[in-house]
Amino acid sequence: MSTSIDLRDQTFVITGANTGIGRANALALAERKVGRLIIAARSLERTQPVLDEVRAKNPDGTAEFVALDLGDLASVRRAADEILERDVAVDVLVNNAGIAGVQGQTKDGFELAFGTNHVGHYLWSEKLLPLVVRAPRGRIVNVASHGHYRAKTGIDWDAVRRPSATVSAFPEYCVSKLANVLHANELARRLAGTKVTTYSLHPGGVASDIWKRRLGVFAALLRPFLITNEEGAKTQLRCETAPELATVTGLYYDKQTPKPASPLALDVALQDELKTRSDEYVKAYL
Length: 286
Prior knowledge:
Mean pLDDT: 92
CATH topology: Rossmann fold
Number of domains: 1
Structural class: alpha/beta
Strand content: 5-15%
Number of helices: 9
Radius of gyration: 17 Å
Low-confidence stretches: 217-222
Largest sheet: 8 strands, mixed
CATH superfamily: NAD(P)-binding Rossmann-like Domain
Distance between the termini: 39 Å
Order of helices and strands: EHEHEHEHEHEHHHEEH
Shape: globular
């Protein structure tokens, strides 16, 4: 498993790298001496310690912050425009941020997990795609979840426009993760013939903040069965940097290895329907 690719001239853009596996990913890239790292997250205050760590590990590289709230499409547009104004090719776009186990709706009226995990990232990816296409070999990496297998009935297009209907909001989370895999697969088809490759992945059962805040005391009971953020970041790091994956596109990875995605995630008609509906959702912000 080769990791010899030189990152010193590369630009990475990662959402939600202020905590969890995103933070571990950012620090691993700093150790690999990535040339430019742009972290897009909601809070500069919460992201500043990560920026400081990245700069300490990689003083010759640059680490930058862009304010981004994926649950607010106006914020997504502003953040993407800020990066577009920098006029730099993006070698790797990492759609890492996500929420789970939270009820509600986004500012734009989507079920909270679907709106944040998919719709926000869909607009983000569409806006930044021209910069990824400009890279010598661009990559788009969607951090999904094994939970996408649990969305067995597909996507209820009415439900994604309403507040979360379940107490745990876990079924809604699974639908949003199915959308992440569908999105990566549709992009792979759309970008066939270009030098851009796409990946979706399950980071593993990670002891990250995403569930700890929701499970309370039960999080401590689960911890012995979970992997660390650093271990969880390994699969996305492989998708981002492995030279042997540079010409491989549209696959789903688990434990750094390609695995069959769910039949629904491989359904081309569903991929196309998600794209059509997502285009409609975000058209006012493109």
